[in-house]
Amino acid sequence: GSGGFRKRKHDNFPHGQRREEKENVNPPSALMSSFKSFQLELDTRHDKYERLVKLSRDITIESKRTIFLLHRFTSAPNGEEILSESEVKLDAVRRKIKQVAQELIGEDMYQFHRAISPGLQEYVEAVSFQYFIKTRSLISVEEINKQLIFTAEDREETTNMTSNSHDKEAPVWSLKVTPVDYLLGVADLTGELMRLCISSVGNGDIDTPFELSQFLRQIYDGFTFIGNTGPYEVSKKLYTLKQSLAKVENACYTLKVRGSEIPKHMLADVFSTKTELIDQEEGLP
Amino acid sequence: MSVSEMFAALQGALGQDQDIREEIRKEVQALEQTAREILTLLQGVHQGPGFQHIPKKCQKAREHFGTVRTQMESLKTKFPSDQYYRFHEHWRFVLQRLVFLAAFVVYLESETLVTREAVAEILGIEADRERGFHLDIEDYLSGVLTLASELARLAVNSVTAGDYSRPLRISAFINELDSGFRLLNLKNDSLRKRYDGLKYDVKKIEEVVYDLSIRGLNKEATVGAGGEK
């Protein structure tokens, strides 16, 4: 009949109750309790690592976009606008770095260094590129780190912190870019400067290549001085650096030797062909 | 600062880092030597007569751990105490090895799993990062997994030496250890790879227990189990 209902399985076999009974009869052993706490500890660690990886990726992407923007400086009539926009972008990157610093409070930074290193290197590349365009000089690691000291921006952050701190000073977070990350970022910077050199000639700017040549030589000398005393990743960059320097020096040579022969309006063509060749070498579309 | 001045300063920092690592390497070498001595000593339990000498071997091993504690004290002084993970790679291997050896000694003495805190005490280091040179949880777990492999081997050799009850106890211990490890969410790193080996240890011990039970040797063991300890 349709009146009654079928007795469901769990009415006869109350699993929930049974499990509870079992747990009361067999409480977790000391070993199992330990491993439960290990699970929590590892999960917490991994979660933090993942959050830092995500932040590092954001930092990388936004830094790369800043670099692309700054390359447009050479051909843009309103360079000041581009510089201001780049500053806005880099401020956004620094806000991400602040989040990294907050995640690392009370932690050993080196435990999570591999998670954030790529982002920081890209940031060094972007900020040093901007600095070069503004000042024609190399930003120091100290200068970079000065910009990575953060204070609480709004009341919300302050009230969250004052419960932990006993002094009335504004809370400070900071992140220090390591010498190695700085060097790797500067090594990558030379690649961008090489591109800057080639494109600046295409724009009829025949002074920048020679400035760049001198600047790159200084950096190359610096890396030569360091040689193999650094970690392997630094020595590895020396090869690419040398290639970038060679391309810039060749551009200067071409300008010097053939610059007087070629009418200015055709100079761009000479170097655009060369740029095509270089781009093909590097596998760019 | 000129570019060359900057690089000179950086080179100074890199050189300093290299010097510290050189010092650490020397200390680690000394620790590795002591670890080898303890391992050679404890390996003896796998042989027939070795079983009778277990208490003596454990005692001797504990004496060696005194040397380890002294060497650890020396290692701690070679680098800034808040930069443990900067140099962690240098001593990671020997520390895992020492965890295994401590766990092995404790198992031979009491047939229990040594806790993280107890290992830290044996090695003369801290259990928490905040308190100084500490035992990282992953190094502890790696050492414990090595113990599992060692006990799988011990189960086999126990039977050969005529001890039919020890494998049964090892089996219970390893199965519980396996349950514990199953709780962990591991990433695809070296710890995960080592954990993957645990199932082969479990299987090996199961086979030993099976071989004993189908021949009725395990019953003989539970009846006649004497003071093997």
Brief synopsis:
The complex is a heterodimer of chains A (285) and B (229). Chain A has 285 residues and is mainly alpha-helical.
Low-pLDDT parts of chain A are: 14-23
How is the main sheet of chain B built?
Answer: none
The CATH topology of the largest domain in chain A is what? Methane Monooxygenase Hydroxylase, Chain G, domain 1
Most extensive interface, chain pair and sizes? A-B, 35 and 36 residues
CATH class of the largest domain in chain B: Mainly Alpha
| CATH architecture heading of the largest domain in chain B | Up-down Bundle
Average residue pLDDT of chain B: 93
Main beta-sheet strand count, sense and barrel state of chain A: 2 strands, antiparallel
The proportion of residues forming helix of chain A, as a percent range, comes to: over 70%
Low-pLDDT runs of chain B: 224-229
Q: Measured on Cα atoms, how large is the radius of gyration of chain A?
A: 28 Å
Q: What is the end-to-end distance of chain A?
A: 75 Å
Q: What top-tier CATH class of the largest domain in chain A fits best?
A: Mainly Alpha
Give the C-alpha Rg of chain B.
21 Å
User: What fold name goes in the CATH topology slot of the largest domain in chain B?
Assistant: Methane Monooxygenase Hydroxylase, Chain G, domain 1
What's the CATH superfamily of the largest domain in chain B, by name? Translin, domain 1
Secondary structure class of chain B reads mainly alpha
Query: How many β strands of chain B by DSSP?
Result: 0
Query: Helix segment count of chain B?
Result: 9
- Pattern of helices and strands of chain A: HHHHHHEHEHHHH
Count of helical regions of chain A: 11
Subcellular location (chain A): Cytoplasm, Perinuclear region; Golgi apparatus; Nucleus
Keywords (chain A): Cytoplasm, Developmental protein, Differentiation, DNA-binding, Golgi apparatus, Isopeptide bond, Magnesium, Metal-binding, Nucleus, Spermatogenesis, Ubl conjugation
Organism (chain A): Bombycilla garrulus
Function (chain A): Acts in combination with TSN as an endonuclease involved in the activation of the RNA-induced silencing complex (RISC). Possible role in spermatogenesis.
